[in-house]
C-alpha cells in the first residue's frame, strides 16, 4: 500500500487521435480498473478531449501511457509530458519515436546485429517489378508508422502490388515492402530488464490481422510457446537487446518470426503494448507469475522523466 500512496494521482492516458483509438480506449479501461482495484488513485485522461496541460492543472503526479499509435506512442506526448514535468510509463521521446517508425527501427537493428527481414522503401516512382525481383513473392507491404496491422497487405501476385502500396500510402508516405518470412509467429515481451516467456500465436490461415487481433476468438495463444528451450532463450535474449539498442525502457513487446531452420527475425517493437482481453503482454506476464493487476502496478512503478 505504501507504493500505491507514493504513486499519487495517476492519469491513465487513453484514446487519443490515432487510428488505434478504439483499442487504446479498451486497453485504458482495463488498466484503469486494475490500478483502482489495487488502491491507486487513477483517473481516465483522453488527450483528444482534454488539453494536455490539464494534467498539471488537475494535480496529476504521473501518467500511465496506454495510447497506441501516432500522437501517443511516437514520442509526441512523451515530449509534452517532459515539458510539464509529469513522469510517465514506457519509453522516452527518442525511443518512442524510433520504435514507432518501422524503417528507422530496422536501421538501428541492422547496425546492432539484430536480425530483421530484408526490405525496400517504396515511393510512387518505385519500380515495383524490381522490388518483387529482389524480395520475391509473397511479400508484405505496410505503412512504416501505423500499428495493429492497419494498412498491412500480403502481396501474393504482381497484380496486387499497386493496390497494396496505395492503401499503405494513404496512411503514411513512408511505406515498406518487406520479404515474407514463413514460420511461427511469436511475441517477446520485455518488462524492465528481463524478457518474459514467449507467446506463440496461431491464427487461422496465418491471418493475425486487426479484426482477429481484437474482435474474434479464433486466434489461439500458446504460453509456454512450445519452442525449444535453447531457441526460446536465444530469442528472449535477442529481444532484450532489440529493446535496449532502441533506447526503450519500462516495458515493450517485440514481434518475431521463427523460421523452420531455427533462425528468427524481428519485425517491430511496440512501446505501449495492448492491454485488452486478447493482448499478449498480460499472457506472458501471467506465465511469469504476474497477474494483470500486478503487471499494471509494475509498469506504473517505472514511470520516469528523461
TrEMBL record:
EC numbers on record: 6.3.2.4
Coarse class of the protein's main subcellular location: cytoplasm
Swiss-Prot/TrEMBL catalytic activity: 2 D-alanine + ATP = D-alanyl-D-alanine + ADP + phosphate + H(+)
Residue stretches making up the ATP-grasp domain: 106-301
Any one cellular-component term (Gene Ontology): cytosol
Binding-site residues for Mg(2+) 1, renumbered to this chain: 255, 268
Record keywords, A-Z: ATP-binding, Cell shape, Cell wall biogenesis/degradation, Cytoplasm, Ligase, Magnesium, Manganese, Metal-binding, Nucleotide-binding, Peptidoglycan synthesis
Top-level lineage group: Bacteria
Pathway stated in the Swiss-Prot or TrEMBL entry: Cell wall biogenesis; peptidoglycan biosynthesis
UniProt binding sites for Mg(2+) 2: 268, 270
GO molecular-function term, one example from the UniProt record: D-alanine-D-alanine ligase activity
EC top class, as a word: ligase
Keyword Lyase attributed: no
Matching Pfam families: Dala_Dala_lig_C, Dala_Dala_lig_N
SUPFAM superfamilies from the UniProt entry: Glutathione synthetase ATP-binding domain-like, PreATP-grasp domain
Similarity section: Belongs to the D-alanine--D-alanine ligase family.
Function per UniProt: Cell wall formation.
Entries under NCBIfam families matching the protein: D_ala_D_alaTIGR, PRK01372.1
Protein's name according to its UniProt entry: D-alanine--D-alanine ligase
Name of the gene encoding the protein in the UniProt record: ddl
Amino acid at each position: 500500500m505504501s507504493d500505491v500512496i507514493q504513486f499519487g494521482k495517476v492519469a491513465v492516458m487513453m484514446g487519443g487521435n490515432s487510428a488505434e483509438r478504439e483499442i487504446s480506449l479498451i486497453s485504458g479501461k482495463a488498466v484503469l480498473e486494475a490500478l483502482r482495484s489495487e488502491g491507486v488513485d487513477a483517473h481516465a485522461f483522453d488527450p483528444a478531449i482534454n488539453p494536455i496541460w490539464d494534467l498539471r492543472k488537475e494535480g496529476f503526479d504521473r501518467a500511465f501511457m496506454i495510447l497506441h499509435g501516432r500522437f501517443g506512442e511516437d514520442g509526441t506526448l512523451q515530449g509534452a509530458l517532459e515539458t510539464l514535468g509529469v513522469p510517465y510509463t514506457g519509453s522516452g521521446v527518442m525511443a518512442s519515436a524510433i520504435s514507432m517508425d518501422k524503417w528507422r527501427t530496422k536501421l538501428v537493428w541492422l547496425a546492432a546485429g539484430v536480425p530483421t527481414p530484408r526490405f525496400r522503401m517504396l515511393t510512387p516512382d518505385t519500380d515495383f517489378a524490381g522490388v518483387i525481383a529482389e524480395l520475391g513473392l509473397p511479400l508484405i507491404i505496410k505503412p512504416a508508422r501505423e500499428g495493429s496491422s492497419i494498412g498491412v497487405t500480403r502481396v501474393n501476385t504482381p497484380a496486387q502490388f499497386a493496390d497494396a502500396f496505395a492503401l499503405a500510402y494513404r496512411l503514411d508516405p513512408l511505406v515498406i515492402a518487406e520479404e515474407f518470412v514463413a514460420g511461427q509467429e511469436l511475441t517477446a515481451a520485455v518488462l524492465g530488464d528481463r524478457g518474459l516467456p514467449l507467446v506463440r500465436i496461431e491464427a487461422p490461415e496465418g491471418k493475425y490481422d486487426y479484426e482477429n487481433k481484437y474482435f474474434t476468438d479464433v486466434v489461439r495463444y500458446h504460453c509456454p510457446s512450445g519452442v525449444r528451450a535453447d531457441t526460446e532463450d536465444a530469442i528472449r535474449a535477442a529481444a532484450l537487446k532489440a529493446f535496449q539498442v532502441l533506447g526503450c525502457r519500462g516495458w515493450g513487446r517485440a514481434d518475431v518470426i521463427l523460421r523452420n531452420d531455427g533462425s528468427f527475425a524481428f519485425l517491430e517493437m511496440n512501446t505501449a503494448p495492448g492491454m485488452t482481453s486478447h493482448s499478449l503482454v498480460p499472457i506472458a506476464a501471467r506465465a511469469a507469475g504476474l497477474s494483470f493487476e500486478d503487471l499494471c502496478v509494475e509498469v506504473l512503478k517505472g514511470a520516469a522523466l528523461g
